[in-house]
Amino acid sequence: MFLLDSEEIAFPDPALYDFEGGLLAMGGDLSPERIWFAYQNGIFPWFNPEDDILWWCPDPRFVLFPEDLKISKSMKKILRAGKFTFTENKCFEEVMKNCQAAERKGQDGTWITDGMIKAYSTLHRFGKAKSIEVWENDELVGGLYGVDLGHIFCGESMFAKVSNA
């Protein structure tokens, strides 16, 4: 595994290495510049709050193509009923904080640290990170956030406070 320099924003070429599960490097920082550079190279941070920053580039990656997405009949019915409304980038940081607080089966905590919220919120202000919000009666009940590279959106986390949000 590579140890990153905290001063230089650089990563090893993932194509040259085959690490278990895609773990590529550790260290560095969560500066918006480093995170943006990482995403441009197919790399993302994911680590436990008490650990060093870990950088990943798994192969293969899970990819959804919008034209191939199948929406169930029951979900189509919910969408037609207008139960939810949707917005983009209305409350980015609030979406991240809800993702941070979401309880997940089989997980003791979250990888979304306060430092990550600060860094991704800066990327959002630069137009590089986006959120989608799901509302029910003016209450934020679901959402997701991620990094937008223009030709690809890298979804990072999502939350739902009510069923189907």
**In percent, how helical is the residue content?**
10-25%
Strand content: 25-35%
- SSE order: EEHEEHEHHEEE
The spatial strand order of the largest sheet comes to: 1-2-4-3
**Class computed from helices, strands and strand pairing:** alpha+beta
Shape: globular
The strand count comes to 8
In DSSP terms (H or I, runs of 4 or more residues), the helix count works out at 4
Describe this structure as you would to a colleague.
The protein is an alpha+beta fold and 165 residues long. The chain has four helices and eight strands; from the N terminus they run ββαββαβααβββ. A four-stranded mixed beta sheet has the order 1-2-4-3. Strands 5-6-7-8 form a four-stranded antiparallel beta sheet, covered by helices on one side. A hairpin with a 4-residue loop joins strand 7 (139-148) and strand 8 (153-160). Helix 3 packs antiparallel against helix 4 (114-125). The chain is globular and about 50 Å long. The protein starts with a strand and ends in a 5-residue tail after the last strand.
Throw out a few tags for this protein.
four-stranded antiparallel sheet; alpha+beta; 165 residues; 24% helix; four-stranded mixed sheet
